[in-house]
Design a protein that fits this description.
The chain has about 150 residues and is mainly alpha-helical. Helix content is about 65%, strand content about 0%.
Length: about 150
């Protein structure tokens, strides 16, 4: 897959489309109204995390685009709680959509999505940050978990 199409929002869109397909092909309503409310809340929370984290990165004048070299190590705001709040937001959006679509089998997509994000993006980003910021990044990793 070329790098131009290897971008986290596209992966999220693909997984959301698969979740929608599963809900259409294998309707298994188990969550009902609870799934609608919780799913909607998780989607909103996910978008909120993404927006706040992107804002923090923009304030630090560093890139939000994966695979671009960061100019600053952002450790403030949501980054005090998670090293990857944007990816966490993506995962919450997918989880929320699965609940809202009321399709239990699609929930299996969430750990698969997390694995894809870890292997395709986070591992490389961490290597770049480690190289660029050395001990400062190592100390940050020791203090803040990768996801939550």
């Amino acid at each position: 897959m070329t790098k131009i199409f290897d971008w986290p929002p596209l992966w999220l869109a693909l997984f959301l489309a698969v979740a929608w397909g599963i809900s259409a092909l294998l309707p298994m309503p188990v969550f009902g109204r609870f799934g609608d409310v919780l799913g909607g809340a998780l989607v909103l929370l996910g978008f909120g995390l993404m927006g706040l984290a992107a804002g923090e990165m923009l304030r630090a004048r560093t890139t939000v685009v994966p695979r671009r070299q960061a100019r600053q190590l952002v450790t403030s705001g949501l980054f005090r709680l998670s090293r990857n709040p944007i990816y966490l937001g993506d995962s919450l959006i997918l989880l929320g959509a699965c609940l809202w679509l009321d399709t239990a089998p699609a929930l299996l997509l969430v750990p698969l999505f997390i694995w894809v994000i870890n292997t395709r993006f986070i591992t490389g980003e961490e290597a770049h940050l480690r190289q660029a910021f050395g001990t400062e990044y190592e100390n940050y990793c020791a203090a803040v978990r990768r996801w939550v």
